[in-house]
Amino acid sequence: MHYHIILTELCNSQCRYCYGKSMREENDLNKRFKFDFDAPYISSVSVEKVKEFLKRDKEPTLIFYGGEPLLQMRRVKELIDGLKDVPNIQFRMQTNGKLLDKLDIEYLKKIGKILVSIDGKRELTDFNKGEGTYDKVVGNLRLIRKRGYDGEIVARMCISEFPDLNEQVRHLLELIDEGLFSSIHWQLDLGFYSCDYDFERVKEFIEDYNVSLKKLFEWWIGELYLGRVWKLYPFIGMVEHLFSGREAKLMCGAGHSNWTITTDGNLVACPIMGCMPDFYCGNLDSSPSELREIAPVSKCASCKYLSDCGGRCLYVNSVELWPPEGMDLICSTAKFYIDLVKSRMGEIRLLIESGAIGEKDFEYEKYFGPEIVP
Length: 374
Ligand code: SF4
Prior knowledge:
By secondary structure, this protein is α/β, with parallel strands linked by helices. It is built from 15 helices and 9 strands.
């Protein structure tokens, strides 16, 4: 199983779509859900306790998460050292990348995959995340590659306000060519806050995003004909899923294959639901096999896309900060994306049969961060 561990709720960035919106946010969530605001900002769980818990899992993967996890660099090192005897332990991390140059390379090398936030070109990344962010992050990636880090680095994009996905991803592909990133995933900033809802604006954004998504997908399919399978998680993840014939569960793994260790040692379904006891599934004294499983929200049960969508984002669908017509808009883009990938599956199968690409090219580690359905 995969487990995020929240090392701190604090962050050294003030991104427009996170800090910027939470500063403006006023909603009725406190009336509808319980919140545990007494949980500490910094993880208070002991390495020993985490170790005992993970030893009960045959193949545990621990994902350092925040806030910004590298603000707790000493804890990262303590956990890597203290958990080294846990059988089959793997480490992952989700970071804004600004402090990657400060972590000793010997520790960094123990973290097999890292998701690094970047939104595309310098101009957009700096607009969203602050002046100088792009150069700092890309500079740090050059540095850690030079120091010998050869694990997977996922470019973790947030698509917010600007729907030009194709243009931004195509830029990041140049950084894959340079050997900095290995893969790309993007998530849509839709439905996380009530303060940013405006039906006409969201509708226009989704229409433009869908056009850009289609453009990118068509380019990606063209590359398959040349024998190149670019690791864009929303595409390889959905293709792999459609090949498998499985009924999708929440594709990020939340509450069935991925849980989050909160700062006070509870196990919650999703890393952004850290202080929401309604979604707690156990704690560090639980056995991993006994953790409560969380199903998609009830509206998904009657949706004919559920077996491929899996229920998209558990948080967004549970808190419903947008009115029903806004929530429908969000689902409309998930449906558009699923139909788009499905429409080319016949060709992809033929390409595999011809030997141009292999089915194995679409295999990937599930649940370490990319949610697949954007
Ligand atoms: S498209 Fe919407 S309603 Fe349908 S399964 Fe996905 S999240 Fe649920």
